[in-house]
Amino acid sequence: MRIGLLTGGGDCPGLNAVIRAVVRKGIGEYGDQMLGLRGGWRGAIEDTSEQLTIDSTRGILTRGGTILGTSRTNPFKHDGGPRLIRETLARHELDGLVAIGGEDTLGAANRLHAEGVNVIGVPKTIDNDLGATDVTFGFDTALQIATEAIDRLHSTAESHDRVLVAEVMGRTAGWIALHAGIAGGAHAILIPEVPFDIDEVCGLICHRREHGQRYSIVVTAEGALPKEGTMATAAGELDEFGHPRLGGIGQRLEQEIEQRTGYETRATVFGHIQRGGTPTAFDRVLATRFGLAAIDAAHAGKWGTMTALRSAEIELVELADAVAEVRLVPVAEYERYRVLFG
Ligand code: F6P
Description:
Blueprint: E1 2-7, H1 15-30, E2 33-37, H2 41-46, E3 49-52, H3 81-91, E4 96-101, H4 103-114, E5 119-123, H5 139-160, E6 163-168, H6 175-183, E7 188-190, H7 198-210, E8 216-221, H8 249-261, E9 265-269, H9 281-299, E10 305-310, E11 313-318, H10 319-322, H11 331-337
Parallel strand pairs: 1-2, 1-4, 4-5, 5-10, 6-8, 6-9, 7-8
Antiparallel strand pairs: 2-3, 10-11
Helix pairs in contact: 1-9, 5-6, 7-8
Bound molecules: 6-O-phosphono-beta-D-fructofuranose (F6P).
6-O-phosphono-beta-D-fructofuranose (F6P) binds near residues 10, 169, 170, 171 and 246.
């Protein structure tokens, strides 16, 4: 077979491990030809591609990012996008595509499949917000990085008697904030799924001080929102998939907490550090398992499906099910941890 590969959306650790696994098994076991499309759907539209071989994909397992480059290009926002993609496939005589991406890249893959493009999806994102899979690769690495950073905040917060606010990524899902906050022993965790009450947050901080604790760590998801009318926030510009550019809640909390409690407060934005660098062992293995399953799926003609981890097993699920809705933190799960706050 002749298979095209692309990585779309925000990069995340483990993308190269998928590419390597697809190429190794595709060429080594099936005798396939592999073509890498550069920069996500943009590469498929503009036909910027390179041949991938076992040699060209050596040594990439541990590398963060993606050797194919990525973009947030939405083919349905580009004039003739789906047609140009079909033409690229025809020009290179590709039997189908393996698209590695999150909600947006795979949402486009699902629509393209409905229009007759052969595609298999592989779920990636540090946000862990894709449906139909227990977890996406990239999340574990981001969680590890964020947890280590929170660990470091404790000593400096304690030394200065400060409140430190850590803003983490995750878009509309609070998975990174919740898990890093729990693992890092945060005193308050704010997630988009549960609008926060700033009075309550300040109450937790003051309660600690009254009980002899001289510092606090607040972990906030970038998409966390105050209960309506309780605190002002700003909106960011939109990308091609209609998502606002998030960020800024940490700084708002810094001002608000300091003003309301009188305790010195600083905000730290972990930002893209959470997405960079080498994947954890868990992510390397998961990405490799997804890659091996994706090329098998292509050979089995299971177009329109996505590889998924379900109860420790790799399965194929319908792409449409995976992108039907964003997988958010269940409110009950968040509430279970409230007892640890303060
Ligand atoms: O979707 C992954 C993600 O890292 C989000 O957590 C974050 O909101 C967004 O991408 C940042 O995007 P960009 O790299 O385009 O600023």
